[in-house]
Amino acid sequence: MSALWQILISGALTGGLFIIVASSLTYLIGVSGIVNFAQGEFVMVGGYMAFFLVQRFHLHPLVIVPIAGITCALLGAVLYEVLLKKTVRNAGRHEHDQLIITLGLSFMLQNAALLMFTGTARTINQQLILPNAYWNGIFFSGNAIAGCIAGGVLGLALLLFIGRSRLGRVMNACRQDANLAELSGINVDRTHMISFALSAGLAGIAGVFFVSSVFVFPSVGVNILITAFAIIVIGSLGNVAGAIFASILVGITISASEAFLPFGATWGYAAPFLLLIVVLIVRPQGLFGREPV
Amino acid sequence: MRLGMLLSVAAVLALFAFGAASGAATRSALLTVFIVAMLGISWDVLSRAGLVSIGQGAVFGLAAYVTAILTNAHVPYVLAIAASIAFAALASMLFGSITLRLQGIYFSLTTLAVGVAAQAAILMVPGITQGAAGISLPQIAGGDLFWQVVILSGALLAAAIASELALKSRFGTVLFAIRDAPRVARASGIDITRWRTAAFVLSASIAALAGGVYAGLFGYIHSDDVLALQWSVLAIAAAVIGGTDLTIGSIVGAALIVLINTYLSGRFGGGVGQLVYGLMLILLLLFARGGIVGIVVALFARARSKATA
């Protein structure tokens, strides 16, 4: 019995780690329509920052959270202004430019990281944010719980921000009718830039919790991105609450396939992608979407 | 003969002549140009139908594996490649009939996921694929670089001709109509999913041809190499840097990418070349959508209008 609980709990904790990055990705799609293939690289950047700040200056991981968040948000703002602004305006005519540009950006950041940090996998999982615990023979990783709590808090904050705040409503207005928003005196370009920066900042924060629990290496972003994509498609694109729910679901799928299938580790690695393919085929609008796509 | 076909054939012949005239080091770098050019063409065929694939590398890598497994079972090389093309065509027909109903981004996501899932799948059946050990097979032409250049020129020529024929026929026109005016296309009675599936099959066949010949170049393949995301990015980069909706674009793009990669990585170490062509990909898309070929055409047009004025 406790083995089953262990699978459920470690699965939920694995999934919890993805809440921040999945919500930031899906929120950006919801408010600006940008599908950012370089989101995983912001996680990678946040993770490396945490690793080096812990190693050199012995900072506490929680102190690094705002540093990584702000750095990645600034990086995101600059990249949006330089690379994406034009494509968001032209989205009607050349809808694929954004995809190819963010993919190219992802590839560049991976190779830049490889040059700067080498291919060695890094982690600060020895640096405990919360103590590990055993309870009735079930192991609870303290850092994973910390990532889960942070995911829950930030995910809910994001939901409130989009639904309740003035800026959140402005963002929605830009998405629903950019011309009307512009006519009402809203700076649409700047609003999209803020959305993108916020999303990148959240991904940077996710990076700190990633490197606290698992490994970060130059191409880690691709794996994170595809898992996050599986999550947000299952939770319906643009739906933050759906993403939070689907994170836990995908986490449990991963740990269950690792436990029950032959070649467990490989299946755990492949599970989110296979799940994504199945969901795209059977119900591409996701669990919470109404309209077929 | 039409200009596009003429230029594409001339470009392949020029690459062949260059390969025949140069030494071993240049020849082995040139082999990559042929492979990347074929991948670029295979990506471009899909892009003409408004589909952005991030999974050309998956077809490439799986075809390399099929070819390697069959040659190890003593199937002659040519038949093994033919079988891997047939396998890719069939698989893409099945896969396409399901996923091609999906809109833009959902389609791209599926292709990306297939690539990563394929890498895991190879490791799951070590009885057939030899898993993480990689797989050895006899080299094409016994590893003779000159004959390898000959064979790769032939393969690229076949891919370029197929692409040009598709471009200048009703098939090509329908694909552009589906991409640029989907509603009009549907209203004219065009079955969008069927034509897109046809483009998918052609694209997969070209990528499979590239994978099949690649498998035999070095006599050894590994899933970390042939199923790396890099090949999918290279396919996009070659087409976009050289120029999309053209066959010659991918050939020019591939030559430029390999040149940059070989020079920069030789001088500054691995990773720098990728950084530069990633940047070129983004800049060209932002500022010169026609790619290098588009820039050259614009320069010619300007020179001609000056001459007549």
Which descriptors apply to this entry?
heterodimer, A: 293 residues, 75% helix, 2% strand, globular, B: 309 residues, two-stranded antiparallel ribbon, 15 helices
Walkthrough of the structure:
Chain A has a two-stranded antiparallel ribbon with strand order 1-2. Chain A contains twelve helices and two strands; from the N terminus they run αααααββααααααα. By secondary structure, chain A is mostly helical. In chain A, a hairpin with a 2-residue loop joins β1 and β2 (138-140). With 309 residues, chain B is mostly helical. Chain B has helices spanning 3-21, 24-47, 56-72, 77-99, 104-124, 126-129, 145-167, 170-180, 182-187, 192-218, 223-226, 229-242, 248-268, 272-287, 291-308, and strands at residues 135-136, 220-221. The two termini of chain B are 30 Å apart. The A-B interface holds A 35, 83, 86-87, 94-97, 99-101, 103-105, 107-108, 111-112, 114-115, 219, 222-223, 226, 229-230, 233, 263, 266-267, 269-270, 273-274, 276-277, 280-281, 284, 293 and B 47, 50, 52, 54, 98-99, 102-106, 108-110, 112-114, 116-117, 120-121, 123-124, 229, 233, 236-237, 240, 269-272, 274-275, 278-279, 281-282, 285-286, 289.
Q: Which SSEs are present, and which pair or pack?
A:
The complex is a heterodimer of chains A (293) and B (309).
Chain A: H1 2-17, H2 19-32, H3 39-57, H4 61-89, H5 97-117, E1 133-135, E2 138-140, H6 142-164, H7 166-176, H8 178-183, H9 188-213, H10 220-234, H11 240-260, H12 264-282
Antiparallel strand pairs in A: 1-2
Chain B: H1 3-21, H2 24-47, H3 56-72, H4 77-99, H5 104-124, H6 126-129, E1 135-136, H7 145-167, H8 170-180, H9 182-187, H10 192-218, E2 220-221, H11 223-226, H12 229-242, H13 248-268, H14 272-287, H15 291-308
Antiparallel strand pairs in B: 1-2
